Amino acid sequence: MKHFEANFDGLVGPTHNYAGLSFGNVASQNNAALISNPKAAAKQGLQKAKALADLGLIQGILAPQERPDLYTLRRIGFSGTDANVLQQAALKTPALLNACCSASSMWTANAATVSPSADTRDGKLHFTPANLVDKLHRSIEPITTGRILTATFNDPHYFHHHNHLPEHNSFGDEGAANHTRLCKEYGHAGVELFVYGQEATNPNALKPKKYPARQTLEASMAVARLHQLDDENCVFIQQNPEVIDQGVFHNDVIAVGNQNVLFYHEQAFLNTNNKLDEIRRKLDSELYFIEVPTAQVSINDAVKSYLFNTQIVTLPSGDMAIIAPTDCQENPAVNAYLNELLTLNTPIKQVKYFDVKQSMQNGGGPACLRLRVAMNQDELAAVNQHTLLTDALFNRLNIWVDKHYRDRLSTQDLADPQLIIESRTALDELSQIMKLGSVYQFQR
After folding, report:
1. How far apart are CA 431 and CA 370, in angstroms?
2. Distances 261 to 218, 252, 303, 345, 346 between C-alpha atoms, Å
3. How far apart are CA 179 and CA 367, in angstroms?
4. How far lies 102's CA from each of 13, 99, 394, 410, in Å?
5. Which of 76, 267, 293, 425 is deepest in the core (most CB within 10 A)?
């Protein structure tokens, strides 16, 4: 049976804006209050997804969340008509309004952790939505995320969906942004790498001093249990607290893996050599550990360019390619390193650059925009086929974006009651295009 890795990219929502909500995410904070272009952002994301489909890869789309999130605003005491709720929040708690208008669900690397059937004891694909408790604007996502994932991977014979973890900092879970999988072939049992920032229940454990460690060891271990993974399928690695304090808020800002390749920065982890030995021991296969030296690429350059928030994909030819933002091409040190990488004896033979600046300015690169799902052909056939990117769906979604999205949005515009109508109208039509059913609260 044929096996492969599919990418499900998050469709950028109609309220894409730069509110600078993510403390610890340098790009998000530095670009706060810029004017955003939701239409351009959505089209950049679609173009990147279409380019991967054109390369012969399986590419899907995950729907955005409903924003503004008036239900959260009502939970915290605002009342009256929808317009009144929005205007009261803008007047009295503008920061909370900004949080309830965030389009950050576009970064589906944070949507969930996924374990393929080759690794799990029950032979099913497992999904656990991330609880994202560290950031208010993301902590309101998990319930709708679960609905969208269930509507996308909708056959219980093949797919096992879990609830998100308890909403407490001890179980802070940021999803696949802190998880990667190494394997010989996608259909073979692999080793799942869970990267955590701190051990929350150990007061003596190392943790960052400036920025929060969003992923806990406790959360990673809980997901591994839920997904029915054996100890031999798991390696738990602590992210270097010093690089978190330099703006590396997720592991996918400092490391990325694909099949038998782990691409990481010299300063990415603690106890690196021992952990690499553990991977070698548990995955009896040829491995390529590509360590990027600080002398060639500083942490600052890695964060600015999102060198490690690239995708490493296996092309139909069997070669691997890096899918990078144009920011990597524009950074002299990173560009020089990538050019050198192509001359080394590794499976990575190409680098392809894409303009995703609307996402990059808010703190997310190409890898943030996708959720990886290793699957076989039977599982792919069981996916909601209306979520898989074809030429027809690509064209229809572009027409849908042109019809519903603004090409200019400031944080002040978030208080516009018309934005509620525009967003709900767009999402109601999208749920029909993608045959999702009633995944949004306003539809229920």
Report:
1. 19
2. 26, 14, 21, 12, 8
3. 12
4. 9, 5, 24, 12
5. 267
Burial class (CB in 10 A: 0-12, 13-18, 19+), 33: exposed
Residue 117's nearest CA partner among 311, 377, 367 is 377
pLDDT at 27: 47
Q: How confident is the model at residue 428 (pLDDT cuts 50, 70, 90)?
A: very high
Collect all residues with Cβ–Cβ distance below 8 Å to 55 and sequence separation of at least 6. Answer: 313, 315, 316, 321
What per-residue confidence (pLDDT) applies to 30?
58
pLDDT of residue 34: 76
Measured distance CA(165)–CA(200) in Å, rounded: 14
Q: Specify the amino acid at residue 217.
A: L
d(CA 96, CA 90): 8
Reference 57, options 318, 309, 250; nearest CA is 318
What is the DSSP code string of 237-275? EEBPHHHHTTT--SGGGTEEEETTEEEEETTSBSSHHHH
**Interhelix angle for 391-404 vs 38-54, to 10°?**
180
Q: Over 90: is that where the pLDDT of 360 sits?
A: no
Cis peptide before 64 (omega within 30 of 0): no
The per-residue pLDDT for range 159-195, each reduced to its tens digit, is: 999 999 999 999 999 999 999 999 999 999 999 999 9
Alpha-carbon distance of 140 to 102, in angstroms, equals 10
Q: Taking residues 411-429, what's their average pLDDT?
A: 95
Other CB atoms within a 10 A radius of the CB of residue 147 amount to 21
Contact of 7 with 311, CB cutoff 8 Å: yes
> Are 20 and 389 spatial neighbours (Cβ–Cβ below 8 Å)?
no
Residue 292: Cβ-neighbour burial (10 angstroms; 0-12, 13-18, 19+): buried
pTM: 0.95
Count the helix, strand and coil residues of the chain and give each as a percent rounded to the nearest 5. Answer: 40, 20, 40
3-state secondary structure at position 277? helix
Q: CA 374, CA 366: separation in Å to the nearest integer? A: 18
Q: Note the pLDDT tens digit of each residue in 189-220.
A: 999 999 999 999 999 999 999 998 999 999 99
Tell me the catalytic residues.
174, 250, 368
Across the chain, mean pLDDT equals: 94
Residues in the chain: 444
Report angle CA 241, 174, 306 to the nearest 5 degrees: 65
Q: Are strands 179-182 and 191-196 parallel, antiparallel or unpaired?
A: antiparallel
Q: Is the pLDDT of residue 31 over 70?
A: no
